Structures are given as structure tokens and as C-alpha cells.
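Exercise 3.2. Students should predict the tertiary structure of the chain below and write it as C-alpha cells, then compare their answer with the key that follows.

Predict this chain's 3D structure.
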Amino acid sequence: MTRFAPSGADAALIAELAALGLAVSQAQLERWRAAHYLPPHPREHLGRGRGTASHLLPQTVARAAWLAAASRQGRALPVAAAWACWSADGSRGGVARLRTAVTDQLDRYGKRLAAGNARDDDSWQRRHNAAEAAARRVPDLDQHALLRAVATTAARDPAAVAPLPRVDRDLALVLGRLLAGGGEDVGEDELLDKLCQVFPEQAEGMRTAAAARDAAGHGGTWEGFALAGGWSALQDAVQAAPDHALCRAVELVTATAATLELVLVRLGPAAQAAMPAPPTGLDVEAVPGAMTTALADPMWDEWGRHMPLDGDSPAWPTVAAYQTALTLLLPGRADALAGYRERTEQLIRHTQDPVQP
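Answer key:
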């Protein structure tokens, strides 16, 4: 129960939301602020002895309307929405919550992988078994075949989107073992052989690069390979990241996934059925073309097909935390993802409402 009447700015905000058909109470606004979802109103000094006055900004109305639409009665804000809010504002309290949330997700999955550096046989076997179980689940995250079917039907052209090979479980197992135990559990030659088997068209280049490493005395050392530190390297990357870098990484992951979800999931089925698009405020004349372009982008194969696009998916928090850590850890990853996000957003024309808060 709220103790005080709404401030002038909050009263104006509640009225603005009501005009949009959204019923939001003062208590709800206070809960959002306490959780660092909604920024405080800016205040202006009125002069000596006259105190201060708060002002309602248009972006505050937009954020509150977005929160009201994303929230469900009696339930917490979805994880994807919470992370988007914290990364967008960059407030001290919000960034602290964001860092804790991402780290907690990595910690939980690290325990599932039995990640660690103990070298005894029992520990190695636990890591191997956990990586094997994780490798079996990886192909289930691949969304390409399903979305390709939607896009080719919408485009009325079965060749509009090329098929992609399914994720190789053996390669997923090697990478899982590397994440669980680091370079002590997996040798460079083992990873190289598996990569050459899965990507034969790139095998010659990879073996040439490996030979150059050997000639330079770096063979077998994992020098310069960020993931050789295993799962702890991902956790360390999140813990050590400056606030602005962490916010950018999370914002890139959440915004890119949300944009892909809009193009491929929300608009796709309507285009597939030749029905009017949902009321998203978009010009969807070119939806089939936008879908095929998004699925043909090289970053879709590298990133998008493995990222759950639905923020309510149970897999979303773990995969988003993993992708955030990779964005911080791998050189050039943030810029590559930023370019992918920009290219995908260009596919959307006449946007009236932002995808992210």
C-alpha cells in the first residue's frame, strides 16, 4: 500500500499510461524503480527556498508503457526484459543487478558442466559425462530448419533460403569438454582435427595457420585462444568487464535477439499464411524478403540460429549469459554483433515502437 500520493510527475505518468489503455498504480511504479527497471524523474531546482520539481520525460512514458506491456499480473518481469532495462540505463544499481544475474546464470551452467580444474580421473569423467549430455542438447537449439520452412513458404520459393548443416555433436562434445576443463582436457590437435572434419572447405587454411603456430613455437600452448581457460574464462570476463562494456554486450545480445524475433517469429507466420501482419506498426510488404535476408546473413549461422529468440524460453537466460561472455571475451565479437544488429534492423521499415526499451 502506497504511503504518499503520487508526485506531480508520477501522476502525469499514470495519466499518460491510462490514455494508452494501461492501468498502472503508484505502487507498481515504485516497484519498478526499486528493481531499477524505471529510471527516476529528473528534478529541477526552482530557486532559493522553493525546493525542486520533477519532470516527466517522453522516454519515461515509453519505458513504463513497455514495462506494463511486458509485465504479467502477479509474475516477475521476464529475464530478457529485465536485462534489457538494466543494460539500457546503466545505473549503478542496475548494472550491479545485471552483473549478478549474468554471473549467476554462468555459475549454474558451470555446475551442470562439472566445470573445474581438478585433474583426477573421477573429476575428468564427471566433466566428460556432463559435456556429453550438453552436446546432445545443442542441436535442439538450432532454429534454422524450422525458420527456413517458414521463410521459403512465405517467399513461395523453396530455394529462397539455403539449408545449413546440422550442428555436429562430436564437435559440440569437444567444445563442451574444452569449456568444462579448459585446455588441460582437450588438445589443440584434437580440436583442429574435428574442425577440419566438420568444415572441410576451410581445412587447408586452418592447418596452414596451425603449422604457422607450430613454427612460431606456440603449438600446443593454446596461446591466444580465449576459451582455453574453460568456463572460468567466461565468468572472469563478466566479472572483470567495465560497466559500459557489460551493458553494451548485454544490450547487443538482447536487442539483436529481439529484432530477429520480430522479423522471423512474429511476422513470419503471418507472412507464411498470407495474412495481415500483427499490429506492430511496421510496413511488412517485404517481410518474406526480410526473412530470407536475415537467414542468409553469415552471423545467423554463427550466432542467430543458436540464440533462443523468445525471451520467455527456459534456455534464454543461460544462452544469453554465454553469448554475453563471448561478446566480452572474443576480439571483434562485439563489433560483429553490432553490425548484425544494424543490418537486421534495416530490414524493418517505418518502426513506430522500439524493439527494446
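Discussion points: The mean pLDDT is 85. The two ends are 27 Å apart (CA to CA).
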